[in-house]
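Worked example

This section walks through a single chain of length 184. The input is the sequence exactly as stored; nothing has been trimmed or padded.
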Amino acid sequence: MPIIIETRDLSKRYKDVQAVDRLNIKVRKAEIYGLLGPNGAGKTTTIKMLLGLTHPTSGESFFDGKKVSEESVLIRKDVGYLPERVAFYDNLTPVQTLHFFCELQGADKSVTEPLLKEVGLEDAMHRKVGTFSKGMVQLLGVAQAMIGEPSIYILDEPMGGLDPRWVKVVRDKIKMLNERGATI
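Given that input, the structure is written out below as C-alpha cells.
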C-alpha cells in the first residue's frame, strides 16, 4: 500500500519546550496507526501540524505526497478530524449541529440522522447538546468527523470520556471505517 501520511524530521518548539523532536513516521493507505505516549509527549501538537493548524519549527509533513504547508486547505477536505477537546454549541441539537457541519462541507444533510444512529445518539437527536454528558459530546464528535465519508480520519483521543460500552461502539466504528478502506 502507498504511503498516505509522512513526516520528515518534524519538530515543534514552544519557547523552552521541545514539543516534537525530529519525528519521522509513515502511515500506509488503509492502515490504522496510533500515536502513543504520555501526556505532554507531543501527540496533539503532531496532529495539529499534520492538519496545518500550527506550523512546525522545522521539518515537513505530507498527505498523499502533498506538502502540508502548501496544500493544507485541500488536504483537510478529505480528512475527518476529531479534536482532543470536542466542543459544540450548547443551544443546538445534534441534528442542527450536524446540519451546520454538512453546510460547511457541502455534504448532503440526509446523512445526519443515520450518522447519529450509527454512534448511538438516536434517542438524543433532538435534545440540546448543552444537556449532554462528556461521552455523548464525544460521540457527536465522532459522527461529525464521519460527514462526507473522508478517506482519512485523524482522531485525537477518540475514547476520551466514554464508558466501556461506548468505547466498544467507537472501536467497532473505527474497524468498520478501516474495512471500507479509510486510513485511521
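What to look for: Residues 135 and 162 are 5 Å apart (CA to CA).
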